[in-house]
Amino acid sequence: MMSKKLVAGFLFLAVAAAVLLFFWPSDEKRIRKLFKEGVAAAESRDLDGVMSKFSYNYRDDYGMTYIYLKETLRREFERISEPHIEFDNLQVKVLKDESPKEEGGTKRAIAEADVRVVATMGTETGYILGDPKEPVHLRFILEKGRMNWRVVKVKGFLPE
User: Could you give the CA distance from residue 72 to residue 79 in angstroms, rounded to a whole number?
Assistant: First the structure.
């Protein structure tokens, strides 16, 4: 017959595991948080905060790499003030990893959103991405590293 302490210990472990599983954020919630934090960092012109959301392996169809993107954003943050980002209709789709673990499969996701950016340059304030009638629809490709999701590619700045 089991002792009361042993039963209580098993019960505690079961409840702790259930609570952990219930409250552990899903990949979709983690990605939504990544974008929320990235927008806040961009609005405060925090270059390191913005770049922490991008993978060092970032490479897009426009020729941007992580280093080139960082330098471009640094120059833009020096030119503009008071940026405001409208980030609407965020849709997140976590893709199923089809490759076996032995092959080093990477978990990927696609996030799409409509974006407008308003900023001040000198004495002029206006849209620097999108416009009042039509936002720019951006598609973000993300990969999950050991602990965090990072953007590895962005599409939609130019018509395809």
Answer: 11
